[in-house]
Amino acid sequence: MDCIVVGGGLAGLASAVWLTEAGHRVTILERRGSLGGRTISMPIAAVDDVPDNGQHVFASGYEDLMRYLESVGTRHYVEFPGHMSIRLPDGTSHRQAFGGLTGLRAAFGALPGVAGLDRARTMLAQGRLIRHVLRQPAWLDDVTADEWFRRIKMPQAARDALWDGIVIGLTGDKTEISSAKVPADLLVTGVRRALVHKRAISIGYPTVDLDTLFIDGAEKFFANNGVDVRHRAVVSTIDVADGAVTGVTLNDGEHIPADAVICAVPVWSVKGLLDQVPGHEAVYAAADQLTPVPIVSVNLYLDRDIGMADWGEILYGGEGVLEQVWDRQRMHGREPKDNYFYSTTVSASYELVGKTNDEIIDVQIAMLRRYFPGAADAQVIHGHVVRMPKSTFAQRPGTAGIRPDQRTAVRGFALAGDWTRTDWTTTMEGAAQSAARAVDVILSDR
Ligand SMILES: Cc1cc2nc3c(=O)[nH]c(=O)nc-3n(C[C@H](O)[C@H](O)[C@H](O)COP(=O)(O)OP(=O)(O)OC[C@H]3O[C@@H](n4cnc5c(N)ncnc54)[C@H](O)[C@@H]3O)c2cc1C
Q1: Does the C-beta of 39 come closer than 6 Å to ligand 1?
Q2: Ligand 1 atom nearest to 345, measured from its CA
Q3: Which of 9, 40, 239, 374 could form a disulfide with 307, with the two C-beta atoms 3.0–4.6 Å apart?
Q4: Domain Amine oxidase spans what residues (predicted)?
Q5: 3-state DSSP assignment of residue 333
Q6: Are 298 and 385 in contact (CB under 8 A)?
Q7: Measured from the CB, is residue 312 less than 6 Å from ligand 1?
Q8: What is the domain range of residue 129?
Q9: Cβ neighbours of residue 29 under 8 Å, at least 6 residues apart?
């Protein structure tokens, strides 16, 4: 078959690799000048370094993403150290091993900063939470995670220490925005994966920049297997005749014929592309409801070691958003030479994203000084702000079930992308799983 993949982010790359492995001829059409979509590196000449557009972390249940990395030969660049740390505003850092004794103690309410009666209240609230996750009451998608925590009487201290961070980490959004059903579903996915692998889910990270991890191996694979990659090719319609796909048309009017097409553009780019696809109204309605969530990342090259206790630390008790700090040189196994490189991530950064670069750097440095005594006199050698107003998408109450399936009403045409229906939310694994399912649709349509 002659196949077209629209979009060269992770969902498109994985689709192209797996269609090629299945023996088909593939063309990738990517609107930008390079591949990678939302997972890219951004070289900075001033410090001779290659930071990313934002730190990406992995969960050990990311099966399809790992399969993609196996296919492009870079699986060995992901490490799961088995721990991460949380830091409280008083500067104390607590190392969290995943599962094991720490998990057991947490189940009994023993969380940092949670004391006295709140421990018993936390244990009871967590019991109610687990019951809701397993039984999924009908109202779960009618309320925000914030309201859910109020209903199960989760003490504020436990929310500050763990649960708000979990919601923001899992959904990418604030507790007062995200539907309670999203974290509940993800907890089910996590437990399922943990049971299959007989291991608690843990968090890992790439030991190289994102281009080396996701793109370089893919480009070699494409060159070796005759995949045609066309940059700056902007698709304007998916073409359909008699219920089957016939190809795509670019914005300059060129029609490219194909036997099969996978459309792997982000949710905010899909409107207009599917006008000829029966049922596109529901997809466009979903696209209107899955609104973008900003992430602001700052790559900070400092003149000294701020004394991080771990490769990654989550800062609790911040400003209601999840703030994370990453020790990039440690993660990449490099000795600091001319500077100490820390990367910070502010998820759901609705307020921060509108500020100037200098203001953002000031806010982040002030935050490091608050949490890390070693940062008190640190000077910024170079600061690099990455503002991504469209990083992930929000799933507000009432949106359960609106994410479209990969299978469409058109023969030979499938949707992919982190926003299509998967076991995950807006993640790299969601993108990879959507690709696996889209490729299955195409292969089963033959
Ligand atoms: C800062 C940041 C941090 C993140 N952190 C994590 C994390 O820690 N863990 C995690 O799992 N996930 C994380 N994510 C989410 C993850 O990056 C995304 O969910 C995933 O990369 C989405 O991949 P995708 O292929 O679905 O979409 P995209 O990567 O957006 O790819 C879509 C591609 O389609 C192209 N395109 C659009 N329209 C057209 C058109 N008309 N014609 C041709 N091409 C088109 C675009 O240019 C783009 O290259 C993070 C995201 C960001 C931005």
Answers
A1: yes
A2: 1
A3: 374
A4: 10-443
A5: coil
A6: yes
A7: no
A8: 99-198
A9: 4, 5, 6, 7, 8, 230, 233, 234, 235, 248, 250, 256
Question: Do 405 and 359 belong together in one domain?
Answer: no
Whether residue 83 lies inside any domain: the answer is: no
Categorize the per-residue pLDDT at 320 as very low, low, confident or very high, splitting at 50, 70 and 90.
very low
Of all protein residues, the one whose alpha carbon is nearest to atom 41 of ligand 1 is 235
Rounded Cα distance between 207 and 281, Å, is: 42
Q: How far apart are CA 199 and CA 260, in angstroms?
A: 39
Distance CA 426, CA 171 (A): 7
Q: Is the CB of 12 under 6 A from ligand 1?
A: yes
User: Is residue 89 included in any domain, yes or no?
Assistant: no
* Whether 388 and 407 share a structural domain: no
**Ligand 1 atom index nearest CA of 424:** 11
Is the shortest distance between the CB of 10 and ligand 1 below 6 Å? yes
Q: Are residues 271 and 358 in the same domain?
A: no
Given this model, what pLDDT does residue 101 score? Answer: 60
- The verdict on 258 and 312 lying in the same domain is no
388 lines ligand 1 (CB under 6 A): yes
Would you say residue 85 lies in a domain? no
* Crossing angle (nearest 10°) for helices 63-72 and 217-224: 60
Is there an atom of ligand 1 within 6 Å of 57 CB? yes
How far apart are the C-alpha atoms of 47 and 35, rounded to whole Å? 24
Cβ 51 under 6 angstroms from ligand 1: no
- DSSP at 125: H
Q: In this structure, are 119 and 137 located in the same domain? A: yes
Alpha carbon nearest to ligand 1 atom 4, residue: 56
Q: Judge if the beta carbon of residue 392 lies within 6 A of ligand 1.
A: yes
CA distance 98 to 200: 6
Question: Each residue of 291-314: pLDDT tens digit?
Answer: 999 999 999 999 999 999 999 998
Using the mean position of ligand 1's atoms as its centre, give its distance from the Cα of residue 78 in Å: 19
Chain segment 96-113, per-residue pLDDT in tens: 776 666 666 777 778 877
Vertex 38, ends 34 and 44: CA angle to 5°? 65
ipTM for the assembly: 0.99
> Which ligand 1 atom sits nearest the alpha carbon of residue 430?
19
* Rounded-to-integer distance, Cα 144 and Cα 319, Å: 19
Scanning the structure block, which residue is given the tokens 């097409």? 261
Q: Mean pLDDT: which of 57-61, 186-190, 243-247, 334-338 is highest?
A: 243-247
The CATH number given to whatever domain includes residue 307 is 3.90.660.10
One domain, residues 106 and 194: yes
Span 135-164, pLDDT tens digits: 999 999 999 999 999 999 999 988 988 888
Does the beta carbon of 8 lie inside 6 Å of ligand 1? Answer: yes
Residue 424 lies in a domain: yes
